[in-house]
TrEMBL record:
Signal peptide segment: none
PANTHER family xrefs: UPF0397 PROTEIN BC_2624-RELATED, UPF0397 PROTEIN SPR0429
Keyword vocabulary terms for this entry: Membrane, Transmembrane, Transmembrane helix
Transmembrane segments: 6-27, 48-70, 76-98, 110-129, 160-181
Gene source species: Flavonifractor hominis
InterPro entries: ECF_substrate-spec-like
Record's protein name: ECF transporter S component
Annotated coiled-coil segments of the chain: none
Length: 189
C-alpha cells in the first residue's frame, strides 16, 4: 500500500504560492460604491486559482492563507480575514479538486486547467456575493435587506474583470509552470 506523502517540492510550492497570493493582493484598485462598502479590481484571483491548479485541493490553503494574511495587514479588511480565508480558500480548493481528479487519470491539460479555473471562480463568487450581502451589507453596514441586495450589482463589473483575468492567466501560467517542472524532472501531483 502506497502512502500519500507531502513532498518537499509540494511544501515549497505551497509556501511560494501563499507568498504570491499575499503579494498579489497588493496589486489592487479599491473603489467605494454608491450605497455602501467598496469593490476592488485585483490580480490576486489569478494566484488563488493557480494555487489550486498546481497543488490540487491543498492549493486552497495557499489561496486562503495568503489572502487572509493580506487582510491582516490592511485595516480596511482585517476584521473579515477569517471570511477571506474561507472564500479564497474555497476558490483554490474547488480549482484543485478539478485538477486532483484529473491528476490520477491523466496528465493535466489546458482544458482541464480552464475547467478548474471556472469551477474555482464560480465557487468563490457564490461565496463572495453571499458574504457581501450578509456580512458586509446587513451586519457591517447595517443596511436593510433591499439596500444590501442593491449593492451586489455594483460589485459585478469588478467581479467579472477579476474572474476573466483569472480564467485567462491562471491556466496559461499553470501549463507553463507544469511544463518547466516536467523538463526539470519534478512532479507536483
Amino acid at each position: 500500500m502506497q502512502k500519500n506523502r507531502f513532498t518537499v517540492l509540494q511544501l515549497a510550492v505551497l509556501a511560494m504560492m501563499t507568498a504570491l497570493v499575499f503579494v498579489s493582493n497588493y496589486l489592487r484598485v479599491t473603489m467605494p460604491i454608491a450605497i455602501g462598502g467598496n469593490t476592488s479590481f485585483t490580480l490576486a484571483n489569478i494566484m488563488c486559482v493557480l494555487s489550486g491548479l498546481l497543488l490540487g485541493p491543498v492549493g486552497g490553503l495557499a489561496a486562503g492563507l495568503g489572502s487572509a494574511l493580506y487582510d491582516l495587514t490592511n485595516p480596511l479588511f482585517a476584521s473579515e480575514c477569517w471570511l477571506t480565508f474561507l472564500t479564497k480558500g474555497a476558490m483554490g480548493l474547488a480549482a484543485g479538486l478539478v485538477m486532483h481528479n484529473a491528476a490520477h487519470r491523466e496528465e493535466p491539460t489546458y482544458p482541464r486547467c480552464v475547467s478548474g479555473a471556472v469551477v474555482g471562480c464560480i465557487a468563490y463568487y457564490i461565496l463572495y456575493f453571499t458574504k457581501s450581502y450578509f456580512y458586509n451589507g446587513l451586519l457591517v453596514e447595517g443596511l436593510q435587506p433591499a439596500a444590501a441586495l442593491a449593492t451586489l450589482p455594483l460589485k459585478v463589473p469588478a467581479s467579472i474583470f477579476n474572474a476573466a483575468v483569472a480564467l485567462v492567466a491562471a491556466p496559461i501560467l499553470c501549463m507553463a509552470i507544469r511544463s518547466a517542472l516536467k523538463r526539470a524532472h519534478l512532479k507536483l501531483a
